[in-house]
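Re: Re: ligand-bound prediction request (bumping)

Still looking for help on this. To restate: I need the protein modeled with EPU bound, output as structure tokens. Inputs repeated here so nobody has to scroll up.
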Amino acid sequence: MQSYVIEGGYPLKGELVVQGSKNAALPLIAAAFLNEGITVLNGCPDISDVDNMLEIIRHLGCKAYKEKNSIIINGSLTDRDEIPADMVKSARGSMLFMGAVLARCGCISMDYPGGCMIGERPVNYHLDAFEKMGADVAYKSEGIKCTCAQLKGCTINLPFPSVGATENVILAAVKAKGATTIINAAMEPEIAELCRMLCMLGAEIEGIGSKIIIIKKGIKKRDIQYTVMSDRIAAGTYAYAAAAAGGDVCCIVNREDVMTGISVLCKRMGIKLVYGNDYVRIISGKKINSIPYIKTEPYPGFPTDMQSQLMSVLSMGDGISVIEESIFEKRYHIVGELLKMGADIRTKGSKAYIRGVRSLKGAVLDVKDLRGGAALIIAGLAADGTTTVLDPGYINRGYERIADNLSELGGNIHLA
Ligand code: EPU
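Reply:
Sorry for the wait, this slipped through. Here it is.
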């Protein structure tokens, strides 16, 4: 168990190079499995979810190693089409191997994926799509087996713009015979990243970044290098940390759209954002305006992955705020922990009613999911006194060096 020990009340000031995106890197690793050449992914975050994906790709027979923030994957050989339960259970991203392995090997057997327990997280959209592409899907108590010697392109109409299902269909479609059209595709920038890397491998994809994606031509064996986009959720997390603790932080990023979805809200809360070519500067005087109503939505709406961090900030807002969580049904794990700090929050169904308090006080807090863990660190940075955040390993899943980064910005935080 790791504990983050935080002495609150220190404003954050300085510059930070934002890590590579977790939710872009995971599908890019699955895409590297499809490439029989060598894939080098630069700017990969050094986090346990990435390590878990590398363990799976090695298990499948590929060679993969890390060199600082680069990952080198040689996909020339694969000799397995099953993934053991313990590897699948430790990360949700493992599900992305389903489309990739099915497409390349003609068969995949794996258990239902794990990940943060933030809701039911079914995989029916993924499996319905594979079936439509010609796969035989068998449901067993120990997991799922999909078989198809040659997937065929078709039109997939997703009932909801699921990020994982969109990515899985794209991964399967670049090895399918004929074109695949995805209607109601998720539009998250991480999906555009996946499409761009697949295009480097020779795929022809229309509608990148839009609701209708057409995969017209598949990939070839190539040696490529790709630089992973900056993590928009990590950038947002540091922005909210600066908002709560006060300060002036410059996040260096390699894409322009990292603050889409949260920038309007920052302004409404009274946080100033200044954009440059490769940075976003966040200036906050610690006074937070309340937000009368905000709902989490698929991109470009307000992201569910920033909801917990927002709750920490608004718990010190100057009035009543209401958050509605519309993507995952169990994403209010931190409410009980914030109450220990003196926050005034009530939940009813998918809504949380937050009455801002003048200040939070330090407490000992338990982490129950990745973004919730980051949110509790934010609360600790702004609180009076000492906060200890007890983490059984969730935060390292998605944040690289979070304690070091915050402490380099002037936060009083260390790992014990
Ligand atoms: N859904 C279904 N059936 C499916 C797939 C999804 O009902 O087959 C539902 C889910 O239960 C959920 C909604 O659709 O209610 C959206 O789920 P989605 O498939 O979009 O989520 P995901 O692919 O499992 C990714 C991110 C999450 C992020 C969500 C939403 C990765 C590895 N994970 O999950 O990231 O919250 O999209 O943006 O990309 C995180 O980084 O902390 C995290 C949880």
